[in-house]
């Protein structure tokens, strides 16, 4: 899957080093609902099983790669895949601050919407966003996601409770 500045690809064995760095970055744990570091062994096992079907694992991760430099800059995931109800959650990460606000996340989201709606035949995608994460809120709103609920005091970040907004994108015929 390609766009003007990025492409999405499957995980490769050589991705272990940046995946280890990303998954063990406490600054990212707020958005990934993680508080435990991952070992290289566990991440290697994850990479080894990443070829399995989304219908089996209920998730899939794509690496976001800068098209010019061929350098990984982030990841986009579909998770909680529910083929019966035709829905999945979506998560996105552009890891380095200098790579953010360059339009890469928007391009990746557009590609994954196409993949979800047309390849997987999903009816809807959803995401959960901290309302203080204004960049993510803008990104998802720009791509047609609609806030449908607030989970009050849902996550604890540095001993402070924060809400989480549920946003949904329902497939429409104009998505053709």
Can you characterise this structure?
By secondary structure, the chain is of the alpha+beta class. Helix content is 31%, strand content 34%. The protein is built from six helices and seven strands. It has helices spanning 16-23, 26-32, 40-49, 54-57, 104-119, 134-142; strands at residues 6-9, 60-66, 72-82, 87-94, 124-129, 146-157, 160-170. The chain has a seven-stranded mixed beta sheet with strand order 1-2-3-4-5-7-6, sandwiched between helices. Helix 1 (16-23) packs across helix 3 (40-49). The longest helix is centred in the middle third of the chain and has 16 residues, at 104-119. It is globular, with a radius of gyration of 16 Å.
Low-confidence stretches: none
- List the total number of helices: 6
Our measurement of the CA-to-CA distance between the termini, rounded to an integer number of angstroms, reads 17 Å
Average pLDDT works out at 90
Order of helices and strands: EHHHHEEEHEHEE
Shape descriptor: globular
Kindly report the spatial arrangement of strands forming the biggest sheet: 1-2-3-4-5-7-6
The beta-strand count equals 7
Which helices and strands occur, and which strands form pairs?
Blueprint: E1 6-9, H1 16-23, H2 26-32, H3 40-49, H4 54-57, E2 60-66, E3 72-82, E4 87-94, H5 104-119, E5 124-129, H6 134-142, E6 146-157, E7 160-170
Helix pairs in contact: 1-3
């Amino acid at each position: 899957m390609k766009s003007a500045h990025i492409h999405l690809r499957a995980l490769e064995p050589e991705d272990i080093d940046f995946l280890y760095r990303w998954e063990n970055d406490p600054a990212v744990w707020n958005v990934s609902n993680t508080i435990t570091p991952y070992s290289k062994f566990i991440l290697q096992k994850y990479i080894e099983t990443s070829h399995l079907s989304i219908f089996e694992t209920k998730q899939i991760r794509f690496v976001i790669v800068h098209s010019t430099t061929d350098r990984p800059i982030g990841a986009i995931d579909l998770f909680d895949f529910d083929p019966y109800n035709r829905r999945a959650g979506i998560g996105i990460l552009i890891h380095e601050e200098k790579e953010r606000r360059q339009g890469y996340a928007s391009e990746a989201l557009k590609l994954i919407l196409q993949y979800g709606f047309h390849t997987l035949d999903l009816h809807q995608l959803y995401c959960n966003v901290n309302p203080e994460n204004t960049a993510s809120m803008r990104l998802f709103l720009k791509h047609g996601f609609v806030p449908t609920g607030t989970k009050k005091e849902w996550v604890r970040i540095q001993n402070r409770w924060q809400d989480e907004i549920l946003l949904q994108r329902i497939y429409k015929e104009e998505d053709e």
